[in-house]
Amino acid sequence: METTHSTDSTSSLQVSSGQATAKDFFLHLGAIAGLYATAIALVNLLFTVIDNAYPAVIEYNYYSSSSISLPVATLIIIFPIFILLSRLVYKTYELEPDKKQLGIRRWLTYITLFVAGIILASDLVTVLYKFLDGQDLTAAFIFKALVVFILTGAIFKFYLDEIRDKTASGARKIWTIGSCVAIVISIIFGFSVIGSPMTQRLLRYDNQKISDLQSIQWQIINYWQRKGTLPQNISELNDPLSGYTLPTDPQKNQYEYKNTGANSFELCATFNKESVSSNDPRKSMPVDYGLMKNENWVHEAGRQCFSRTIDPKLYPVTKDQIYPIPVR
Fold this sequence. Notes:
The chain is mainly alpha-helical. The protein folds into 2 domains: 18-195, no CATH class; 199-309, no CATH class. The chain has 7 helices and 3 strands, in the order H-H-H-H-H-H-H-E-E-E. The chain has a 3-stranded antiparallel beta sheet, with helices on one face. Strand 1 (256-259) and strand 2 (264-271) form a beta hairpin. It is elongated and about 85 Å long.
């Protein structure tokens, strides 16, 4: 009887060890969620770097608004959590090998394989389509395709071996070290292309200055249409009735305005950085877009003035009508 009882107890322990507990569920779910968040952040980081290294000419921007702050912050916080949760999961497998057959593990692994497989296939189809269709395979597109292919391919390979139980502990360490190295290199490369956090802060100041100048410009146009003349002083743009107040430079420098003619003027500000690099193809693009002559905001570092000439045909004087100022 004692032998039977002992056997029953051992069998009961084996059954319970193969059942999913709340701890198992959240460990597996947390590890997969960490994987997805890390992969998405890494792709966003590398895509942003590629866009800055190979800017699209058709996407004309006056200043760099790219930021790698969020993907870098996500990688710094989420990736170690993903590694920690994964280690806890594998430690559970070592202590209780039956846990490898848990339904939650198999479901999440197969979902990951399915998603990675779909992305891999879509990436290859897109590359082949663009090639067969005679479209220009730009360097930016090729590098983005490689990023997606390598990342999803690595995930697919690792989890395919995992579900087949072909990954040894030594191989997992190699994967972990390789992942850490790849992420650190990506972060360093990102800062080398886009700039340090201090550079990003200075660029944000410049972005705000451009936005402020655009607001002032539209107010000047509105003033012209209502009164048929340009203001002599920038303070004339303040309008308590409409609620418009002149914006102030975030770095305490003063925005400058100068009336240079019957329908022409200049706006000046001091910038921390140039808006685009000297070899950026966007810098040589034409600057007449039909709204106003010389309508562009490309600038160098330091004090920069923008000359504007209002086209009376595009902005006729209608003193009896007040046009709303576009809100940016």
